[in-house]
Design a protein that fits this description.
- The complex is a heterodimer of chains A (about 260) and B (about 300).
- Chain A is of the alpha/beta class.
- Helices cover about 40% and strands about 20% of the residues of chain A.
- Chain A contains ten helices and ten strands.
- In chain A, strands 6-7-8-3-9-10 form a six-stranded mixed beta sheet, sandwiched between helices. In chain A, strands 2-1-4-5 form a four-stranded antiparallel beta sheet, covered by helices on one side.
- The radius of gyration of chain A is 21 Å and the shape is globular.
- Chain B folds into two domains: about 10-60 and about 165-300, no CATH class; about 65-160, Alpha-Beta Plaits.
- Chain B contains nine helices and four strands; from the N terminus they run ααβαβαβαβαααα.
- In chain B, strands 2-3-1-4 form a four-stranded antiparallel beta sheet.
- The chains are: A alpha/beta (about 260), B alpha+beta (about 300).
- The interface between A and B is medium-sized, with 27 and 25 residues.
């Protein structure tokens, strides 16, 4: 569960990146975050990964309260997250397998866990049989699959993908996005930050749009509002219809 | 694997293996770090050995600065010799040598090329005497007074100003040596930290990835620490043998030259253990200190 409440972020140079942001991402959700450059998307990622702290407001990530998190706890916060970057960020001198080992070693995994987990994850992302290749020997799409595998290998609660298809052609982009959706269906929360609206429109998922450090559109919020308006009329609608009294009467009767 | 709890275990074999493999993976930078460490150790070592030899030379010169205690005229040679026990009993007296009148005259005459000057001169014009060397020449005045108080000792000659001059020179030399070696040590740590910083810069992406997947600072730091340790150890071993060769060559040159006969040379065999110990300790300290200082800025991710 991720919850940002009235979050403000101002950098030391005076740039205001977030301006009272409210966002809640439930466990197991798939969410797109879109917005123009400078809207605050990158700052949200940095906040969630503990790279920067909020100037004001509350930030909760997978049970960690980032407002008073100790420095030594940040690695443990990050172990609940898997981060995927546009430029893949693979270690060029290490094979696919060793890139994964590197990530697992970093969190203190045993040799037995490594041997068991890596083949499973490589199969999940469709890279079984390519574990001995170097990143240079793979296509861009495959390299991004390695990055996804590395993000997944430590079994995180949440995957954060920062422009994961930015360097890929449309067909590969769709493959990667479909893979992320499949991972989400297995129970992992997925947050995809992107500016590719065409891609977003191909998936029927929650979309949050940021502008000037605030959410200006939240499709999930819209859906919930629509759902709740069907069940429980809003205050304005109630007064227009003159219904409050009737509702109160129903409540008294226990209806 | 622990996700929310602090890592308690220290994966020694993994960290050492990583540190070792990093030395080879980044071969050129390791070569540069080792080369610079050797150069720094050799400079510090050579300077320290010069200081050790200067100290030994000064100590020898100090020992040559004797006190002369003259026996009163009325005593026979046997009575004069008997005073030796009393002098030896005085605190701070290291050694004594009894010099008879005749020997004193002969020594005196030997200082002049024209020995005919002293022909016919009676040794009775001189007194029996003791040449006394001290344990600590800074206590020369007190010792001189104590010896002067012995019955049968007439006069005591001590060159206090020379001894205090030696003490001043030794003190200055010690301070200058310590200051210079300290400065060289700090400069070495700084140079090596910067060299290792370049190797860490080469690996900043790896470090950033490790941090992003949840590696603790310790996990990132340990391989660098062991790498610094191994770099320092290897450098110190090489530097030790180079220092040995250099020292032997220089001392051989000096001992074969009469101009340098005043210099007291400390044989390498007498000091090799301390040199080895200091080199290994300094090498490892420089290596580990340099690594820790170099990696600090890259951990802030």
């Amino acid at each position: 569960m991720i919850r940002l409440t009235e979050v403000y972020k101002e950098y030391p140079n005076g740039a205001k990146a977030l301006n009272g942001l409210n966002l809640e991402i439930g466990d197991g959700e798939f969410i797109f975050m879109v917005g123009p450059s400078g809207s605050g998307k990158s700052t949200v990622i940095k906040l969630l990964t503990g790279e920067v702290s909020a100037t004001d407001g509350r930030v909760m990530v997978n049970g960690f309260n980032l407002n008073n998190i100790a420095e030594w706890q940040i690695p443990y916060l990050r172990r609940t997250l898997g981060v995927i970057f546009q430029d893949f960020r693979l270690i060029e001198k290490k094979s696919v397998y060793d890139n994964m080992v590197f990530a697992m070693r970093a969190v203190g995994a045993s040799q037995r866990e490594i041997k068991k987990r890596i083949p499973y994850v490589l199969k999940l992302v469709g890279l079984d049989g390519k574990s001995s290749r170097l990143p240079d020997e793979l296509s861009g799409g495959e390299q991004q699959r390695v990055a996804i595998a590395r993000a997944l290998v430590n079994n995180p609660d949440t995957i954060i993908a920062d422009e994961p298809t930015g360097n890929l052609d449309p067909r590969k982009s769709l493959e990667i996005m479909t893979l992320l959706k499949r991972i989400n269906e297995l129970g992992t929360t997925v947050l995809v930050v992107t500016h590719e609206l065409d891609m977003v429109s191909r998936f029927d998922e929650r979309v949050v749009m940021l502008e000037r450090g605030r959410i200006v559109r939240d499709s999930a919020a819209g859906r919930q509002k629509a759902r709740s308006s069907r069940q429980e009329p809003s205050g304005e609608a109630q007064s227009e219809a003159g219904a409050p009294e009737a509702v109160r009467e129903s409540a008294k009767r226990g209806e | 694997m622990s996700r929310r709890m602090p890592d308690r275990s220290h994966n020694f074999t993994y960290f050492v293996a990583e540190g070792f493999s990093n030395m080879f993976t980044h071969g050129f930078m390791s070569f540069a770090a080792i080369g610079i460490t050797i150069a720094c150790l050799l400079i510090m070592g050579t300077f320290s050995l010069v200081a050790v030899n200067a100290n030994a030379t000064l100590a020898k010169l100090e020992q040559d600065n004797e006190i002369l205690a003259y026996v009163e005229d009325g005593l026979t040679e046997a009575q004069a010799r008997a005073l030796g026990h009393k002098i030896l009993a005085v605190e701070n007296v290291a050694e004594i040598e009894f010099i008879t009148r005749d020997k004193a005259l002969a020594d005196y005459a030997a200082q002049y090329e024209d020995s005919t000057l002293f022909e016919g001169m009676e040794s009775s014009v001189l007194r029996h005497r003791f040449a006394i060397t001290l344990v600590d020449i800074s206590l020369m005045r007190q010792t001189k007074e104590a010896i002067g108080g012995i019955d049968g000792i007439g006069r005591v000659n001590a060159y206090e100003e020379i001894s205090s001059g030696f003490i001043t020179i030794r003190n200055i030399a010690a301070i200058v040596s310590i200051a210079l070696v300290s400065v060289l040590f700090l400069v070495s740590v700084f140079i090596i930290a910067n060299t290792i910083k370049l190797t860490a810069f080469d690996r900043r992406e790896d470090i950033a990835i490790m941090k992003m997947v949840g590696a603790t600072d310790g996990f990132v730091r340990w391989p660098f620490v062991y790498e610094g340790f191994l770099t320092g150890l290897l450098s110190s071993v090489i530097a030790f043998f180079m220092q040995w060769g250099l020292y032997s060559a220089i001392t051989k040159g000096i001992s074969g030259n009469d101009i340098f006969s005043i210099i007291t040379i400390v044989p390498f065999a007498d000091i090799w253990q301390i040199v080895a110990l200091v080199f290994v300790a300094a090498g490892m300290l420089i290596g580990v200190g340099g690594s820790l200082s170099a990696i600090r800025q890259f951990l802030k991710v």
